[in-house]
């Protein structure tokens, strides 16, 4: 048995251990120690983030006078946010990031579902070869192909377009997505597919029949695809650097360089750059964790 | 039989096309490009000249070896701090002393991983800024402390990854195994080191190799903090920033596509050889320890 059996692919998220295995006779002190340590690390993880968010709602003097204090009636200010929207083109950056991230995720979902279904379903000698070809992509960072990618994008007249980013990010996301979807498709019972075929469904219809069963896989793929795409700095810097095609991450990076003295605006920009993904992650953390550990962890 | 081939190709073709054109071909082409010289406008086959130049020309080789050594240090710090802390957190989360709260802790601990490095870099630069008075010493301005400081920022961000890998591996240990240990009178500590730890051991090899790939492809955190000329005095220059600088140029350095492709190829080979070595030598042996 492998450490993470693929058979669990379609199963719901792991049940917390305590409930699954019955309680062990544990001492109160031990439990407190575990909570204490975890609280400490959790604080270490989120306190810096909270510090940024907190101070983004303060006036400049308050940021420096009392960096750890909560904003009160005197020190509360949203001027930073106002200035971010006045000076930067934040709304445009957001739209670009959204287009690129949603576009990449949608394309990755469609392409990897088709490919993974076929690689699991049609057991011919070519299938494992293709699967291996995709798997190599999980290991090798696409960034190292930047020189040829740039030449390609220029010759196809895609330079400084969001399309170029979507295509490159899809190529980057597909290997892991295919591997992940394959583990979910392996768990789909053959009977279901055969029943469909007997009723006269074509191959594409048969694939559609299985979709409800691999829905957790789709959610996992979506959540592991989005994160690196939204946060990437390298390709926006190289392929779409102009102000009208900038993504949030690149926009924030340039904002940091430009307005080093306007702390409220800076902190507001950083907060705005981080919040959507934190919210998304908090909602989809289970799928994300499943995707991550099943895609690479096996 | 034939229809199965046709279906396989039809279904995989779209993914294959995008992946080949924008990932596989560029990677292969990058290596190909590193054997050419196009400085004069015409592309000319020069064999290994670019590699020889990179390794031996006094100006480029000094930068290259410096970046390589820094990259090894960047990797080592990740391995030595991130993995043990990740293990501790995973062990705490699965200690059997938590109920619902495990999911809450897990999510909180993973939040830094969801941030962009731009945000992470700035947060930590602000916190260790002498202006805010948390640290008196300019950690990023000192050649000796700059790289460890940046590495630890990155560890802070990505500790959630080994944590999740080890956490899911620990959860996958069959209940009866632990039951048996408990009946035999093993306490939590003994159970962890004698039963759970050996069972999750193969995960460490995988985490190490992923960390290696990831750190040798590193760029963002250094670039976000220091730009393409990673100071002070190149003490935080790693292969990724060297690649960016060679390829794009920066103040005092002209852009050189062939040499950029050469640096990329060297990184590529470093990753490829190590990964292949890992899978051939270590992974198989580790597999035998699984249940």
Outline:
The complex is a heterodimer of chains A (298) and B (291). Chain A is an all-alpha fold.
Any descriptors?
heterodimer; A: 298 residues; mainly alpha; MetI-like fold; 0% strand; globular; B: 291 residues; 12 helices; 73% helix; cell membrane (chain A); MetI-like_sf (chain A); transmembrane helix (chain A)
Number of strands of chain A: 0
The total number of structural domains of chain A is 1
The succession of helices and strands of chain A, N to C, reads HHHHHHHHHHHHHH
How would you write the strand order of the largest sheet of chain B?
A: 1-2
**What fraction, in percent, of the residue positions of chain A are helical?**
over 70%
Summed up, the helix count of chain A is 14
Overall body shape of chain B: globular
Number of DSSP strands of chain B?
2
Question: How would you portray this structure in words?
Answer:
Chain A: One of its GO terms (biological process) is transmembrane transport. The complex is a heterodimer of chains A (298) and B (291). Chain A is mainly α and 298 residues long. Chain A starts with 16 loop residues before the first helix and ends with a helix. Helices cover 72% and strands 0% of the residues of chain A. Chain B is 73% helix and 1% strand. In chain B, a hairpin with a 6-residue loop joins β1 and β2 (44-45). In chain B, α3 (58-93) crosses α7 and α5 packs across α6 (143-158). The model of chain B has no long low-confidence stretch (mean pLDDT 88). At the A-B interface, α1, α2, α5, α6 and α7 of A face α1, α3, α4, α5 and α7 of B.
């Amino acid at each position: 048995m492998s450490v993470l059996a693929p058979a669990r692919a379609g199963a719901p998220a792991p049940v917390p251990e305590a409930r699954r295995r019955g309680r062990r006779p544990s001492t109160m002190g031990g439990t407190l120690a575990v909570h204490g340590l975890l609280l400490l690390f959790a604080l270490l993880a989120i306190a810096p983030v909270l510090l940024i968010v907190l101070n983004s709602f303060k006036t400049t003097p308050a940021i420096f006078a009392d960096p750890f204090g909560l904003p009160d009636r005197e020190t509360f200010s949203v001027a930073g946010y106002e200035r971010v929207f006045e000076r930067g083109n934040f709304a445009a950056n957001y739209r670009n990031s959204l287009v690129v991230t949603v576009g990449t995720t949608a394309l990755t979902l469609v392409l990897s579902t088709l490919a993974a279904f076929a690689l699991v379903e049609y057991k011919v000698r070519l299938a494992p070869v293709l699967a291996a070809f995709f798997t190599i992509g999980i290991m090798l960072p696409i960034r190292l192909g930047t020189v040829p990618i740039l030449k390609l994008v220029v010759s196809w007249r895609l330079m400084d377009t969001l399309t170029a980013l979507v295509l490159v990010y899809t190529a980057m996301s597909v290997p892991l997505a295919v591997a992940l979807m394959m583990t979910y498709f392996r768990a789909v019972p053959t009977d279901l597919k055969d029943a469909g075929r007997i009723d006269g469904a074509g191959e594409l219809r048969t694939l559609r029949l299985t979709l409800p069963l691999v829905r957790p896989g789709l959610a996992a793929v979506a959540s592991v695809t989005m994160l690196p795409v939204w946060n990437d700095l390298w390709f926006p810097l190289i392929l779409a650097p102009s102000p009208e095609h900038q993504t949030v991450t690149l926009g924030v990076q340039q904002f940091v360089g430009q307005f080093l003295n306007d702390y409220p605006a800076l902190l507001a920009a950083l907060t705005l750059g981080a919040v959507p993904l934190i919210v998304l992650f908090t909602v989809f953390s289970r799928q994300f964790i499943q995707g991550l550990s099943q895609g690479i962890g096996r | 039989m034939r229809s199965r081939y046709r279906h396989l190709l039809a279904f995989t073709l779209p993914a294959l096309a995008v992946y080949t054109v924008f990932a596989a071909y560029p990677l292969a082409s990058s290596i190909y490009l590193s054997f050419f010289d196009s400085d004069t406008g015409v592309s000319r086959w020069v064999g290994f000249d670019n590699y020889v130049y990179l390794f031996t020309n006094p100006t480029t080789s000094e930068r290259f070896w410096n970046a390589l050594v820094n990259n090894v240090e960047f990797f080592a710090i990740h391995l030595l701090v991130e993995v043990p802390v990740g293990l501790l957190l995973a062990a705490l989360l699965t200690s059997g002393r938590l109920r619902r709260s495990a999911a809450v802790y897990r999510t909180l601990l993973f939040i830094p991983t969801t941030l962009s490095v731009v945000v992470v870099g700035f947060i930590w630069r602000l916190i260790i800024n002498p202006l805010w008075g948390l640290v008196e010493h300019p950690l990023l301005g000192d050649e000796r402390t700059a790289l460890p400081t940046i590495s630890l920022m990155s560890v802070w961000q990505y500790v959630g990854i080994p944590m999740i890998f080890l956490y899911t591996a620990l959860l996958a240990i069959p209940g009866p195994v632990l039951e048996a240990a408990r009946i035999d009178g093993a306490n939590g500590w003994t159970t962890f080191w004698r039963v759970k730890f050996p069972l999750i051991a193969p995960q460490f090899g995988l985490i190490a190799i992923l960390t290696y790939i990831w750190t040798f492809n590193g760029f963002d955190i250094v670039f976000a903090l220091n730009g393409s000329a990673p100071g002070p005095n190149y003490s935080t220059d790693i292969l990724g920033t060297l690649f960016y600088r060679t390829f794009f140029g920066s103040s005092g350095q002209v852009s050189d596509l062939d040499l950029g492709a050469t640096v990329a190829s060297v990184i590529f080979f470093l990753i490829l050889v190590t990964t292949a070595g890992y899978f051939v030598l270590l992974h198989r042996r580790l597999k035998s320890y699984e249940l």
